[in-house]
Design brief:
With about 170 residues, the chain is mainly α. Helices cover about 70% and strands about 0% of the residues.
Length: about 170
Amino acid sequence: MDKIVTQYKKYRAHNRMLIRIMFILLFITGCMALVTGSYQISWPEIVHLLQGEDVEMSRQIILNIRLPRILAAIVTGTILSLSGAVMQILLRNPLASPYTLGISNAAAFGASCCIVFGGSGAGIVRSSDLFAMANSYMITLFAFLGSLSTGYYPVNYKSKAGIGRGNYFVRSDY
């Protein structure tokens, strides 16, 4: 029993070390993303900005462009990793993904149908904000309905039927 406990403690320590390394790499990548771009910002300018000194152009670029982009990338990566983990947990399959289940192909087909039949981008220009918002909801609805047509139902675990039906939505000429 002691051998199992020590192996588990080693496993947990290894996982903690990997998580620390990933956070350090995330921090380094974020810092590099702050200074690189079409407008070069030096490290001393960032230090002056953090001290409250007025470096207006750099301040605008960092606070309005680069920092929101970094935060959006972190949030997007987190959400995508969680959604993949949830899909694998629901299907009880470590290889489950939207591509192998056919969900991605059906969602793309549903979005394409909405774009073609829904009138968004079909040469019809409407200036109403309400119509633009309705089109975005229609695209989401058709993508969802297209994904349901694959046979993927988390409750019934019909993943093999989803793979088979998802192939209907793939181009066959490539």
